[in-house]
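Bump. Still looking for ABC transporter substrate-binding protein structure tokens.
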Amino acid sequence: MFPSLLRGAALIAATALFPLLPAHAAAPAVDLSPEQPDRIRTDRVEAAIAALPAGFRFVSPGKLTVASVPGRLPFAVYATDTSTPVGGEPDVAQLVADSLGLELELIPVAWADWPLGLASRKYDAVIHNVTVTEERKEKFDFATYRTDLLGWYVAAASPITRIDKAADIAGLKVSVSSGTNQEQILLRWIEENRAQGLPTTEVLYFDDQPVLDLALQSGRIDAYLGPNATSAFQAAQEGKTRAVGTLSGGWPVTAEIAVAVKKGSGLASAVATALNAQIANGTYARTLARWNLSAEAITESRVNPPGLPKK
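Sorry for the wait, here they are.
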């Protein structure tokens, strides 16, 4: 399939999952225009610019070139021009670029391609839901900007009010994606309940997102455990599901999402300084709120914090 058709397909899929809502809906319509007139902008941060290593060279002079992975909101999808990434991660990239006094250039890439592209300096940074891990820290430097959360979601009319611990899922029907970290967490919770003599939890798997959504909304399953960001955004847009609990994506270890840059480049400190300035002046909070990501906000950007351990 030609790239333009792939981009068009991604746009159609995104619109199907997160349709543009009518004016009377509770949540605002999603702006998929390439211009993004409501994107939050900010001023230069001299301290961040001063934190750049002497003689630092960006991939393109005067620009911050950032890899983005269009695929699903609130992270990023293609705009209506089928070529420009828009979403929460491009918005964060814009804050960093503005802080450094640079023009933002977004480069759409496939998820599997970002590590090699960053190592070979095809772009200055990757800003797309990259979790800090000890293994990745051997090859890249990081400046954090969100916590990595998983979310428990139920139908809007469900009697379930909270899921905070293993005992809360005893006897429930729960869906999770196969082969994911959240599946491993769910299975550990089930084993914990079994050891306590509590009723078992039935695990159901769905390969198709709309089918999963329908199963949850109709009560065929009681709860879904998955990435909080996508589920929170969908819940806000559609109003058919709601959150009843969150936990760290690396449970029981805390996990953080970060801007990834080339190892030893010195760029991570400047990015962290930029992000901390935006945290302090409120533009960071407004940017996350635009995409219903406030639950994942941090109070300080850190360079190369402890990452998820090697398996």
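Residues 3-17 form the longest helix (15 residues).

Edit: fixed formatting.
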